[in-house]
Amino acid sequence: MPPLIPIPIPFPGLIIRSTSYLFGSVMRRYYTRQKLSELVEIKVSSEPSGLTINCSELPDASAWIEITNLSPFHVTIHEFEADCYLPERAVTFVKICNVDIGPSDNEKLFVQTDLTVKQVEYIKRHKDVETPWLKIKAMLSCRLSTFEINEREITTKNIEFMNCDDS
Question: Which pLDDT belongs to residue 126?
Answer without folding.
Answer: 87
